[in-house]
Task: inverse folding
């Protein structure tokens, strides 16, 4: 199959799927639970570095390293989610931005992460003696994405998901309904971070080298743009938003438009992202496929101070 599939196009799809995993995690935090995060790249980096360190410096099996990386990111994300208990909205965004910058600085200066030199020679996973590169790695990330989407659908459609959405609409109402907002806010950061950790582990073992610059604020801002444009609180919106913004620059490269100077592609990309953000926020505040609060009326109390049956102890 590797001889049939063009490695360049395979890599595009692989990195697209990795960004979709990042987007799903951030949409869970911001879209479903309403906790604005500008430091999602930190979770991405924790997953990547954890898997790289365990496999390269710890000598662990690649598969075990990737699984442990997700667990480690889950734990660290829960800890980093604690500031969300005291701050909201703009203050929460600034707090997560600060945490992201602190963690990136740690990656850049810590000995265990290789400092400014990063970590190289990260092994590619193998299955039954078959090295998963090109089409094999594509299959791996597609399976992980499918599992991630299925798990997200189950969570958001469950009691936990309903609790997150009530917190998003009105945290005071959520507390009045008996919802343990402290638990659910930390939980959503932990699970959303685990998605980013899985993306980070897959990224590290794909590129075989990682450095702190790969997990900066620009990554967080890009993923947030993808989620907002696609639609907050919508899996379909995440898939659309990530695919649109990730593939747009690749289309410029593919068609080699004469009026586009490839040297300035990153600048053009950010300009387009910004214009799309302004347009969507102005005309579609919830995003193209975003869900509105009208669908959440059934989650609110029938009368003031009276929780709806079945949700009083969420």
Result:
């Amino acid at each position: 199959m590797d001889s049939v599939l063009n490695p360049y196009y395979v890599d595009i799809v692989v990195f697209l799927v990795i960004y979709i995993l990042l987007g799903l995690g951030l949409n869970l935090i911001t879209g479903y639970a309403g906790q604005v995060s500008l430091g999602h790249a930190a979770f991405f980096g924790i997953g990547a570095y954890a898997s790289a360190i365990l496999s390269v410096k710890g000598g662990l099996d690649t598969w075990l390293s990737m699984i442990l990386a997700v667990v480690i990111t889950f734990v660290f994300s829960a800890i980093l989610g604690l500031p969300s208990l005291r701050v909201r909205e703009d203050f929460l965004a600034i707090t997560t931005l600060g945490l992201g910058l602190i963690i990136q600085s740690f990656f850049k200066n810590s000995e265990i992460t290789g400092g400014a030199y990063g970590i190289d020679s990260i092994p590619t996973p193998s299955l039954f003696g078959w090295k998963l590169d090109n089409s094999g790695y594509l299959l791996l990330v597609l399976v992980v994405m499918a599992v991630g989407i299925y798990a997200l659908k189950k969570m958001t459609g469950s009691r936990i998901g309903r609790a997150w959405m009530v917190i998003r609409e009105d945290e005071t109402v959520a507390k009045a309904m008996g919802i343990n907002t402290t638990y659910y806010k930390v939980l959503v950061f932990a699970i959303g971070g685990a998605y980013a950790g899985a993306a980070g582990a897959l990224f590290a073992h794909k590129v075989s080298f990682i450095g702190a610059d790969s997990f900066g604020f620009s990554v967080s801002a890009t993923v947030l743009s993808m989620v907002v444009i696609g639609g907050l609180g919508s899996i379909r919106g995440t898939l659309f938003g990530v695919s649109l913004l990730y593939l747009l620059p690749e289309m410029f490269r593919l068609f080699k438009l004469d009026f586009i100077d490839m040297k300035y592609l990153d600048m053009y990309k950010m300009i387009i992202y910004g214009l799309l953000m302004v347009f969507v926020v102005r005309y579609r505040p919830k995003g193209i496929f975003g869900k509105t609060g009208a669908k959440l009326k059934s989650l609110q109390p029938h009368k003031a101070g009276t929780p709806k049956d079945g949700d009083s102890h969420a």
About this structure: Residues 181-207 form the longest helix (27 residues). DSSP finds eleven helices and two strands in the chain. Residues 293-314 have pLDDT under 50 and may be disordered.
